[in-house]
Structure formats: C-alpha cells, structure tokens
Design a protein that fits this description.
Layout (H helix, E strand, L loop, with lengths): L1 H14 L17 E3 L5 E3 L7 E6 L6 H12 L1 H6 L2 E7 L3 H11 L5 E3 L4 H5 L3 E4 L2 E4 L2 E5 L5 E5 L7 H13 L4
Parallel strand pairs: 3-4, 4-5
Antiparallel strand pairs: 1-2, 3-8, 6-7, 8-9
Length: 175
C-alpha cells in the first residue's frame, strides 16, 4: 500500500515540471519536426489550418500511457469530425513507437522525440527515477498555430473526452 502511494505521489510530481513552463494559452506553439512510428516526418506546419491535439506521454506501453492513447484511439472519429488531428509524443525511439501503435491499433502518429528538443520547447521534459521522460501534458493547438488550451493535469482515463468537450466549446459560435 505504501509503495502504491509513493508511486501516486511521484506521478503527481511529474505533472508539475519545474523550470521552463513552456507556452501558455495564446502563445504560438513551438515548431517541431519529428519522425512517427512509420518513419514519416511530421512538422507543426503540416497541421496549419486545422486543430491539433498534441499529447505528451512518459513511456510507450505503460499502464497510464496505454489508457490515454487508447482513449484517444476510441474517440478518433469524434476528433476527425471536428477537423482535429491527434498526435502523441514521447521520448521513446521510433521502434518503440511502432510496437506501441501496432499492439493497440493506434490510428494516429506517435512521434519520437528521442533528442528531447520538442519536450524541452513545450516545457514538459522531466526526470522520473533517473530517467528523462515527457510529462503527461497536452496542448490543443488552434488552426493558426496558437495554444488554445494547455492541460497540465491529465487523467488518462477521461482526458480525451475533456479535450473533445473543450474543442466543441471552442468551435461554438460566440453569442
């Protein structure tokens, strides 16, 4: 029981990254150019003119990351119906991303940020058990390339639905 509580506290600590906080709502999203699980290159400019959900996760094929990725997978058609693309990013290499995507039939790009440059630019690079990882945080980027929402605290089991609700709200015409 005590070990489980320690793990919970460590994971909560990962959610608040010290140092550079990264971009905030209204800021331009930092550019990136990374390879996905199929060795295809992706850059922020590829998503100009559409909504982008950029979710960072600590480690492929771990319980929380699997839950989160599968929730996005299960809601992918709802995101597509709203004109939004979904991309996952971790520090895992391309082969690990490929195995993760194949194992869980993930229909969206999983980008490898093995050099940690994008995690640094977004302020999500952290350390867990002497290992560098991306903290579990998400950025909802608008069609103009600006941060519409930054999710610092993420519940893997409900996060996808939260982002969908916020995206629906942002797309509603203002009264």
């Amino acid at each position: 029981m005590l070990a489980a509580l320690r793990k919970v506290f460590l994971l909560l600590a990962l959610m608040s990254v010290p140092g550079f906080a990264g971009p905030t709502d209204g800021d331009a999203a930092p550019g990136f150019r990374l390879q996905d699980q199929n060795n295809n290159w992706h850059q922020l400019d590829d998503y100009q003119g559409q909504w982008l959900v950029l979710f960072f996760y600590p480690k492929a094929d771990t319980p929380g990351c699997t839950t989160e990725a599968c929730e996005f997978r299960d809601n992918i058609f709802a995101f597509e119906d709203l004109g939004a693309a979904v991309i996952g990013v971790s520090l895992d290499d391309v082969k690990s991303q490929e195995a993760f995507a194949d194992k869980y039939s993930l229909p969206f790009p999983l980008l490898s940020d093995a050099k940690m440059n994008v995690a640094k630019a977004y302020g999500v690079l952290t350390t867990f058990r002497d290992m560098r990882v991306a903290a579990r945080q998400t950025f909802l980027i608008d069609p103009a390339g600006k941060i519409a929402r930054h999710y610092k605290k993420v519940d893997p089991a409900t996060h996808s639905k939260q982002v969908l609700a916020d995206l629906n709200e942002l797309l509603e015409p203002s009264a």
